[in-house]
Design a protein that fits this description.
66 residues, alpha+beta, two-stranded antiparallel sheet, two-stranded parallel sheet
């Protein structure tokens, strides 16, 4: 969380959407229908900055790092 806060401060704000690989620190669970459950602390932090978390699709290398 501290790295997010430092990055947002350095950039002068936050993007409207942040994309995460399906790491457990960001994405707690996901269903076959594509519904994901994010870490509640991460959601609270991003909500404070007006941003939304998005998860990369599993097994789709092209969605990472975009």
């Amino acid at each position: 969380m501290r790295c997010h806060i430092d990055a947002f401060a350095a950039m002068g704000g936050a993007p409207s959407e942040l994309r995460y690989d399906r790491m457990k620190t960001a994405v707690i669970d996901g269903t076959a229908e594509g519904v994901i459950t994010c870490n509640s602390s991460l959601v609270a932090l991003l909500t404070h900055y007006g941003a939304l978390p998005r998860a990369c699709r599993p097994h789709r290398a092209r969605t990472k790092g975009s």
